[in-house]
UniProtKB/TrEMBL annotation:
<keyword id="KW-0350">Heme biosynthesis</keyword>
<keyword id="KW-0150">Chloroplast</keyword>
<dbReference type="Pfam" id="PF00762">
    <property type="entry name" value="Ferrochelatase"/>
</dbReference>
<dbReference type="InterPro" id="IPR019772">
    <property type="entry name" value="Ferrochelatase_AS"/>
</dbReference>
<keyword id="KW-0408">Iron</keyword>
<dbReference type="InterPro" id="IPR001015">
    <property type="entry name" value="Ferrochelatase"/>
</dbReference>
<dbReference type="GO" id="GO:0005739">
    <property type="term" value="C:mitochondrion"/>
</dbReference>
<dbReference type="GO" id="GO:0006783">
    <property type="term" value="P:heme biosynthetic process"/>
</dbReference>
<dbReference type="InterPro" id="IPR033644">
    <property type="entry name" value="Ferrochelatase_C"/>
</dbReference>
<keyword id="KW-0456">Lyase</keyword>
<dbReference type="InterPro" id="IPR033659">
    <property type="entry name" value="Ferrochelatase_N"/>
</dbReference>
<comment type="pathway">
    <text>Porphyrin-containing compound metabolism; protoheme biosynthesis; protoheme from protoporphyrin-IX: step 1/1.</text>
</comment>
<protein>
    <recommendedName>
        <fullName>Ferrochelatase</fullName>
        <ecNumber>4.98.1.1</ecNumber>
    </recommendedName>
</protein>
<comment type="function">
    <text>Catalyzes the ferrous insertion into protoporphyrin IX.</text>
</comment>
<dbReference type="GO" id="GO:0004325">
    <property type="term" value="F:ferrochelatase activity"/>
</dbReference>
<dbReference type="GO" id="GO:0009507">
    <property type="term" value="C:chloroplast"/>
</dbReference>
<keyword id="KW-0934">Plastid</keyword>
Length: 479
């Protein structure tokens, strides 16, 4: 079930097998993961059952790997962090023919963006609090799991900064973990977030014999879980109470954006999941007699390509023009405070809102270590455990994960079979006046400009140097 190399069965076959085994697995879960019930009896049989259950848990070393973005902890970390970010092909998707430009382009972009990014991080204390908060979440998750009779080691693996995913995997191997639950800390699945982290993890697993043989499962998203929805609704309810006329407050969900091509061409479920997530939260609020108007927009776009719309900044201006006077911002795609909540939302968007005619501004905090949220994550881990350990290791077909850690494309196929149908991908390369062609023709033009920029950086000659925009010499990182 944990083997990457052995993922060969079609998603439909795997789904049928999963449904057939679900009932017996659930029964086994109740028996193995609820030893506290045996404490209510005093018979020798009950004592023996408790002893057996404890033995089963002790024989396995359970690990939980939390995946997150990462962030620079000091201002000196900003430029190398940005390089790691833009060197990821899931962030900047170049055609295969031009993949050799990925690292040079990332180096150029990181140098150009570093000064402005440093200003942002300086305004929130000189670095991102993401690692500190994620470490606290990991610690609390371990405590909740232990309280629920499932002792487990919880690890943190960041995609673009320390502790890197490779560092977490090293600890997992050193600790001798035999069953691993991979839990991205992104409520909604996207190729650029969870997908990127899982793609890296896949490559690490494939090259390591210990990891290939370690049983594992992946929880790709959890935005629809009751605990998460209730925790978010409670935070919104508390912030609404701070307004004088709470019923007139517009609830403004602001989600991190992704390029539109990810959704239309690559089948990214992010937009559909985000919209459903907002609907679920509003349904929960309606149960609490809260029927405020609400809207959803997307923030943090980068570059000239089209991103998911509506954009957060444009929407704020439009709401002000329509006469909205009170706005409550909800960072819907973030579970930890970082640069995009503390600086982009709290400073930039608040200032824009006040200039646009909105008089009262509020912001819902990120979930952080909110107990209902962390307890629900612990339940998600526990519910996934039968899919890790209840099947025979010797049976190759039975070793498939709940959602397998294989290629992101294969993951999306299984992911689709268990949820909703994704929009069919359009042709990835087509000439003429089609929607796809316009996208790729535009990218080709952009790429030509980028090639000229790279040439300038490598040769030290050109109009950007003559105008003083680029320094006379740059040193490339060692591959």
């Amino acid at each position: 079930m944990g083997s990457i190399a052995n993922f060969t069965s079609p998603p439909q076959l795997f789904t049928r097998r999963l449904l057939q085994q679900k009932t017996c697995i659930q029964m086994e879960t109740r028996r193995l993961l609820q030893p506290s019930k045996a404490l209510l009896t005093t018979t020798s049989d009950a004592a023996q059952q408790l002893s057996t259950t404890t033995l089963v848990i002790q024989e396995e070393k359970i690990g939980v790997l939390l995946l997150n973005l990462g962030g620079p902890e000091t201002l000196e970390d900003v430029q190398p962090f940005l390089f790691n970010l833009f060197a990821d092909p899931d962030i900047i998707r170049l055609p295969k023919l031009f993949r050799f430009l990925q690292r040079p382009l990332a180096h150029l972009i990181s140098i150009l963006r570093a000064p402005k990014s440093k200003e942002g991080y300086a305004s929130i204390g000189g670095g991102s609090p993401l690692r500190r908060i994620t470490d606290a979440q990991a610690e609390d998750l371990g405590k909740f799991l232990f309280a629920k009779n499932v002792p487990a080691e919880v690890y943190v693996g960041m995609r673009y900064w320390h502790p890197f995913t490779e560092e977490a995997i090293h600890k997992i191997k050193m600790d001798g973990i035999t069953k691993l639950v991979v839990l991205p800390l992104y409520p909604q699945f996207s190729i650029s977030t969870s997908g990127s982290s899982l793609r890296l993890l896949e490559s690490i697993f494939r090259e390591d014999e210990y990891l290939v043989n370690m049983q594992h499962t992946v929880i790709p998203s959890w935005y629809q879980r009751e605990g998460y929805i209730k925790a978010m609704s409670t935070l919104i309810e508390k912030e609404l109470e701070k307004f004088e006329c709470s019923e007139k407050v517009m609830i403004f969900f602001s989600a991190h954006g992704v390029p539109l091509a990810y959704v239309e061409e690559a089948g990214d479920p992010y937009k559909a999941e985000m919209e459903e997530c907002v609907d679920l939260i509003m349904e929960e609020l309606e149960k609490r007699k809260i029927t405020n108007a609400y809207t959803l927009a997307y923030q943090s776009r980068v570059g000239p390509v089209e991103w998911l719309k509506p954009y957060t900044d444009d929407t704020i201006i439009e709401l002000g023009q329509k006469g909205v006077k009170s706005l409550l911002a909800v960072p819907i795609s973030f579970v930890s405070e970082h640069i995009e909540t503390l600086e982009e939302i709290d400073v930039e968007y608040k200032e824009l809102a006040l200039k646009s005619g909105i008089e009262k501004w509020g912001r819902v905090p990120a979930l952080g270590c909110e107990p209902t949220f962390i307890s629900d994550l612990a339940d998600a881990v526990i519910e996934s455990l039968p899919y890790v350990g209840a099947m025979a290791v010797s049976d190759i077909e039975a070793r498939q994960s709940l959602v397998p850690l294989a290629s992101v494309e294969e993951l999306l196929a299984v992911y689709d079979s268990q949820r909703r149908g994704l929009p069919p991908p359009v042709t990835m390369w087509e000439w003429g006046w089609t929607k796809s062609a316009e996208t790729w023709n535009g990218r080709a033009a952009m790429l030509a400009v980028l090639v000229l920029l790279v040439w300038e950086v490598t040769t030290g000659e050109g109009f950007l140097h003559q105008w003083g925009i680029l320094p006379l010499s740059l040193h490339w990182p060692t591959p």
